[in-house]
Write a structure and sequence with these properties.
Blueprint (H helix, E strand, L loop, with lengths): L21 H25 L3 H29 L23 H25 L3 H28 L17
Helix pairs in contact: 1-2, 1-3, 1-4, 3-4
Amino acid sequence: MPKGRKKIHTEASGKLSKDIVPLEVLSLGIYNEISAYDFYIRVSQSISNPSGQKKFRFLASDEKRHRETLEKWYEKESGKKFSLDSSKVKKIDVQIKDTTSAFEAIDVALEAERQAYLFYTDAGNKTKNEDAKKMLQVLAKEEDGHYQKLSAERNALSGGFYWFDIEGSGFVED
């Protein structure tokens, strides 16, 4: 990404009504997980460092696992399989190039996770439906977990230390 130029992006976006119901929350979560998966896969394919590729693919697999969990939850709540409408999948439009630094790549991912966390938290605080509120809190917690992992990786790159930094080098750069 050129210096001084930042792209604003959101994984989760839109306005939710105060009357949102659990199936709507699950549907929104599924679409957001698909967007995040696609984003992390594109990032992993845009960088040349094998360690960085592996770590972004891990984040993508985590998003895929979340989607599968949400789809099972949707099926349990509705009694039917989730019907995907590909037009509802938002593309996170951020350019990551091979020359993008590790810090820039992580910062992009951190912002995506932060936006998703804020969206789910805000929606959870606004909704009147207690079941939907609980689901939104779970989704917010998942996004916060991703944010924490990425923060630790960024810290490792800057010379900090976390216990899970031991097995590998930095997120994108060796």
